[in-house]
Specification:
Strand content of chain B: over 45%
Helix content of chain A: under 10%
Order of helices and strands of chain B: EEEEEEEEEEE
Number of strands of chain B: 11
CATH topology of chain A: Immunoglobulin-like
Number of domains of chain B: 1
CATH architecture of chain A: Sandwich
Order of helices and strands of chain A: EEEEEEEEEEEE
Largest sheet of chain B: 7 strands, mixed
CATH class of chain B: Mainly Beta
Strand content of chain A: over 45%
Oligomer: heterodimer
Helix content of chain B: under 10%
Number of domains of chain A: 1
Shape of chain B: globular
CATH class of chain A: Mainly Beta
Structural class of chain A: mainly beta
Structural class of chain B: mainly beta
Largest sheet of chain A: 6 strands, mixed
Distance between the termini of chain B: 32 Å
Distance between the termini of chain A: 41 Å
Largest interface: A-B, 21 and 26 residues
Number of strands of chain A: 12
């Protein structure tokens, strides 16, 4: 079965530290890839997405992600985090052309940024 | 945001009672989804709809049913609520183009005592 793994359950950083959150998926075909963010008490918001083309994708709020096909990975990065980045981050995968665009989510990574 | 509202936003109910959650969208999106979010599990798909009266099961559909009689409304029903269905429920919509993404509603926190 298709699955998405997020390696870190909880990451704690100080402001200005660099961030990298891991995401790996298991699916042999073409996929669309997403990172969503959920701020405390709020709904999920799209950070960035990858469908095709340049594997380095830039999203909102200074986030970026790199798709490495050979590693089945789509890691999220930010060079310098802020306290306001405290949230839960979800990686999601949608097999291209299948499953009515259904998303398979990872279990999420909580990011706590200390001021 | 895709003009998605969910009602109620919070509900406390007792085991064995029926519960219906409503998702309403104003963007005329073709696809609608119901997810549940539980700590340590991320979001899991319950049911989805690809058009009026067209629905299908997701990963965790047992104990849930859905209906979509109008494009804008997608109802999730727990026929007989159980404590294991205590969760936060999110609705999402998507236009249906190949490069579209899912947009999420604000969520409903359901507690089954």
């Amino acid at each position: 079965a298709q699955s998405v793994s997020q390696h870190n359950h909880h990451v704690i950083l100080s402001e200005a530290a660099s961030l990298e959150l891991g995401c790996n998926y298991s699916y042999g075909g073409t996929v669309n890839l997403f990172w969503y963010v959920q701020y405390p008490g709020q709904h999920l918001q799209l950070l960035l997405k990858y469908f095709s083309g340049d594997p380095l994708v830039k999203g909102i709020k200074g986030f970026e992600a790199e798709f490495i096909k050979s590693k089945f990975s789509f890691n999220l990065r930010k060079p310098s985090v802020q306290w306001s980045d405290t949230a839960e981050y979800f990686c999601a995968v949608s097999p291209y052309g299948g499953s009515q665009g259904n998303l398979i989510f990872g279990k999420g990574t909580k990011l706590s940024v200390k001021p | 945001d895709a003009g998605i509202t969910q009602s109620p936003r919070h509900k406390v109910t007792e085991t064995g009672t029926p519960v219906t959650l409503r998702c309403h969208q104003t963007e005329n999106h073709r696809y609608m989804y119901w997810y549940r979010q539980d700590p340590g599990h991320g979001l899991r798909l319950i049911h989805y709809s690809y058009g009026v009266k067209d629905t299908d099961k997701g990963e965790v559909s047992d104990g849930y049913s859905v209906s979509r009689s109008k494009t804008e409304d997608f109802l999730l029903t727990l026929e007989s609520a159980t404590s294991s269905q205590t969760s936060v429920y999110f609705c999402a919509t998507r236009t249906g183009t190949s490069t579209d993404t899912q947009y999420f509603g604000p969520g409903t926190r359901l507690t089954v005592l």
